[in-house]
Description:
By secondary structure, this protein is of the alpha+beta class. It has five helices and five strands. It has helices at 2-65, 68-75, 83-101, 142-147, 199-202; strands spanning 111-116, 123-126, 153-159, 173-182, 189-198.
Amino acid sequence: KKKLMLTMIGIAVLPILLLGSFSYAYFKQVLLMDVQQSELQHNNQTIYGLDNFFLSLEKISDSLLMNQQLTEAVERTYSGPAARVLNYQDKQKIEDALYRNGYYLDNRIDTIAVFPENSDMFYYCTKRTINPDYDVKAESWYEEVVKNEGALTLVGVHENKLVQPRSAADTEYCVTLGRSLHSPGTSRLLGIILINVNVRDLQKLWPQR
């Protein structure tokens, strides 16, 4: 009788164990697929957001490249007693154009700057404190921007030496969109345009989960 009872218990319990194992494996697989699908959707949203953001910055840089006032200023030769005064007048006009046609259009832009070949003075628009000793030609990626002859150059995360750090212990990092500006008639290099985005502001492009 004892053996018979154990056999009957085994017959009753075994299907339950098998069904439980199957259910566990099935729901584990379903849960894993849901997690993977969620991650894929999140990654796609992030990529879509980044693509749209950088496309909008490219359009901003397009408008700056085609800005006649900017082109005329960086083509101008400054000489004579009034050279410095004329240079400062152009600086005001150019920085106004940088604000209206670029900086104002997206609050995630940290800095827009133009570095002309015809002057040791560079033009910029930012709420940050500029580093007056910044030398764009000392950057490792400067030559790449120039060689691309006006095409967009995206510089990955790097130290932002154009602005002063917020504190002595802080180091600023940014992503840069660079484009070289050339004379329409001769293709002579007139300068380069940089759009810097702080890496902290890039986090705004990540969809909330």
